[in-house]
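Troubleshooting entry. Yesterday's outputs looked truncated, so today I'm pasting the complete records for two proteins to confirm everything comes through intact. If either block looks cut off, that's the bug. Protein one:
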Amino acid sequence: MPSVLLIDDNRAVTEIIRALLQRNNYAVEIANSPAAALDALQRSRFNVIVCDVMMPGQDGFTLGRNIKSTPATADIPIVFLTALDTIEDEFEAYLSGAAAYMVKPFKARDLLGTLSSVLNGQTARKGASQGRLSVFQDGLRVLAAVTDRANRRAVADAPRDAGIDLDFSESFDEALQRLDRERFQMLIVDARLNGFSASAMADYMRYFALNLPVIVLGQGEPRPGFVYVSAEGKAVAALAQALKQVLQHRA
C-alpha cells in the first residue's frame, strides 16, 4: 500500500486525516514538526508527502524546498494543505516543489483524488475552494515587463501551453501605462528594469485599489502580494512551470 508522510503541528488534524487515509489503504506516518519530518525522511522511504504550510519554526514551503534540494528525497511528490488562499501563495507552493496545492477546507474525496492523481504521475487539479480562482473563469490576462530574451521565452512558454496569450511590455513605464488603462490579473516584472521599485509599485497598487499578484524576477523585501524569484535561468524556468501549473487549474 502507498506510504504517506503527514506533516502538521495540529495533532487533532493529523488524527482526522490519518484515519481517512488508513481507511482508504494508505500507510501513514505522522510528523508534528518540520524537524520530525526530516528525521522520518532519513529513516524511511515514502511515496508521497502531505504537508501543512503554517507551522512554528519553519513553514511548509521552506521545508518543501529543503526536501527537494536533497537528492535522496527530491523525487517524493509533495501535496500542500493550507488555509493560505492567494494566487501568490499557490505560486510559492509550486516554486517550493509542490505536486499539488489544496486550500482548506476541502472534501475528503478531493484529498483522496489528489493523492491518487499525484501517485499516478498526473497533474492534480485543485479540489477545493474554487472561488479563489474565480478570476480565471473569464480568462487570465498576464502582463510581463520582461525584456531579457531568454527570460521572455521561458515565461511565455507556460501561458502558450495553457492556451493563454501573455502580454509583454518593453519597459516598466509602459507596463504602468497599460495597468492604468487595461485590466490584468497578474503582473510579472524584472526588478532590473529602469524605474522599477517594489515599494513604489506597492504604493501604486494600494492607492488605486489594484488587487493582483506581482511576480518579481529578482530580490527584494517581502511584502504582501509580491513573490520574488531569482532572475537566473533555472529559477525563471521554475517560475514558468509554476505559472503553467496554476493556469492548469482554470478548468
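Protein two, checking that the full record survives here as well:
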Amino acid sequence: MATNTYLPISTLNVNRLNAPIKRHRAADWIKRQEPTICSPQETHLRAKDIYIEREWKKIFHAHVKDRKAGVAILISDKIDFKTKAIKKDKEGHYLMIRSIQEENITIINIYAPNIGAPKYIQQILTDIKRETDGNTITVGEF
C-alpha cells in the first residue's frame, strides 16, 4: 500500500478568539482550507473557551489563565493520530506533540514573544532537541 506524503497544514495567528464572531469567522476560514492539521497562535483562550474544536478529532492546547498568548494543535479525523507525548510551557508560547501516524512524527507550534524571539526559539529547540527527529514539523509565528 502506498503512503500518502501530502499533509495539509494551516497555521495562523488568530490574534485573540475571545469574541464569538471572531471565533466563528476563524472556524469558517479553517474549515474552508480543509487542513489535516491546524496550528493557531495567539488564541488568548482558556480551556473552557475553546469552541473551534467541534470538528476536530484531537485538540491540544497550551494556554494560561489570564488569556495571554496561547497556541493549539488541532488534528482532523483524516489521519490516524496516536499521541505518544505532549510538552508545553506554562506561558502558552509553545506546544509539542509526538505521535505515531504510520511513523513517528513531531509537531511543534511556537508563538514567540515580541522581545527576544530568536533567543527564545533557540532555547525551545535546544530544550526539546532530544525529543525530535527527522520527522519534525515546526510551525508558528516567530
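Both blocks look complete. Sanity check on protein two: Residues 9-141 form a domain with the Deoxyribonuclease I; Chain A fold (CATH 3.60.10.10).
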